[in-house]
Amino acid sequence: MIFANPFWLLCVIPLILLIFHQSRHDSISTLKFSDVSIFRKIENRSTKYLSLSSRFLRYFILFLVIITLARPQLVNVEKEILNKGIDIMMVLDTSGSMAAEDFQPKNRLQVAKDTMKEFISKRVSDRIGLVIFGSDAYTQAPLSMDYKIIGNLFDSIELSMAGDGTSIGMAIATGLNRLKSSTSKSKIMVLLTDGENNAGEIDPIRASKLAKDIGVKIYTIGIGKEGGAQIPYYHPLYGKVYSDVLTYLDENTLKTIANNTNGSYFRATDTDSLKDIYDRIDTLEKTDIKTKNYVNYFDYFPFLLHLIAILILFELILFNILFVVIP
């Protein structure tokens, strides 16, 4: 809320001084009759409070007059985005190896989901989609600007929900199927995996060439500590145990995919480095936003005038007709 004529608010100061002066004046005892016993018989406490309420009502009306002259207004600013953003397809590996616990506080998949959600929250005017893959690949969310819904979809992603293999080529092809009809000036894909292509019918290098043909840039992220990590699983007798086989990351393929599409390859070995990578991608793919602001003002002036008129009428009827206050 703002005031169109704020200088009128200075009149509150003399109003406060008037109230203070009146209260001090009332505290001085005076005796106008030598014998007031006759008035004891007709004394009514309600008339005393009516007299006080009459005075405070007048103070309140004066206060409202000052506020009304100051013209309080409610301001509502609406923004219209004039330019389109870019289209981003997030591609996430959900295979069983993403359960490796070399990323804190939980595992690779959970850290990846949290980091991707944070990345999405920073985007403005971009359409974002989500593809998950394991031995198969499918679209979890089509391109959309409803970031809240996309963020909530990450909460439903679980390990191995698309199978235990790693079909990188299928994942790229699924993302391209969503981006091929895009008219955006820039189309990118951010692919995160911790393994090598061992499933699916599409070769990832061939898929990357298709991406280049339709103008899609692919950023690839390899996740996992150097040398790999053990994968936990639950044994029916011993509970949680770790396999002897370590995860393996095919960095050469990921680098080739990025190079073929004029993208970049990044290696994340811990939680902080993964966050830094998404911050770098966010910086590399910034969109200049042009907006037009529409400002709407709701003026309380007419409402306050009606309120003041009602209160004055109420005061006149109540204290000059129904209840006559004798000084």
Short note summarizing the structure:
It contains ten helices and eleven strands.
What do these coordinates show?
The chain is α/β, with parallel strands linked by helices. It folds into 2 domains: 2-25 and 45-76 and 294-322, no CATH class; 83-284, Rossmann fold, CATH 3.40.50.410. It has helices at residues 12-26, 37-40, 45-69, 108-121, 147-154, 168-179, 204-213, 251-260, 271-284, 301-322, and strands at residues 2-3, 72-81, 87-93, 127-133, 137-144, 187-193, 216-223, 230-235, 239-246, 265-268, 291-299. A 6-stranded mixed sheet has the order 5-4-3-6-7-10, sandwiched between helices. Strands 1-2-11 form a 3-stranded antiparallel sheet. The longest helix has 25 residues, at 45-69. It is elongated. The two termini are 41 Å apart. The model has no long low-confidence stretch (mean pLDDT 85).
Level-1 CATH class name of the largest domain:
Alpha Beta
Q: Enumerate how many helices there are, as a single number.
A: 10
* Mean pLDDT across all amino acids: 85
Largest sheet: 6 strands, mixed
SSE arrangement, N to C: EHHHEEHEEHHEHEEEHEHEH
What is the count of structural domains? Answer: 2
Walk across the major sheet and give the strand order. Answer: 5-4-3-6-7-10
Distance between the termini: 41 Å
- CATH homologous superfamily descriptor of the largest domain: von Willebrand factor, type A domain
The total of beta strands comes to 11
Task: Give the second-level CATH assignment, the architecture of the largest domain.
Answer: 3-Layer(aba) Sandwich
**What are the segments in which pLDDT stays under 50 over at least 5 consecutive residues?**
none
CATH third-level topology of the largest domain: Rossmann fold
